[in-house]
Specification:
Layout (H helix, E strand, L loop, with lengths): L8 H10 L5 H13 L3 H13 L5 H11 L15
Length: 83
Amino acid sequence: MAAPRLRDPAVVAALSRRIDPADSVALTNFAWLVARAGHLEAGLGAARRAAALEGAPRASWRALERLAIGRTDGLVLATVGQT
């Protein structure tokens, strides 16, 4: 399977709609992926949704903090079971 072309905003929007809105790990990792691909606003939106969920991992909060100030360095991927 070919990797999605993340330079296309339509692809990013389509991927965003496919993510379970109750999955903070998937939302955090999506935020990391798209922000690093140059879609800061989409990443910030996903990080906000992830951090708003009960039990969101620390990576969600870290992503939100970094992306809110326009930084994509220092982002970490979230893992299942991470607190």
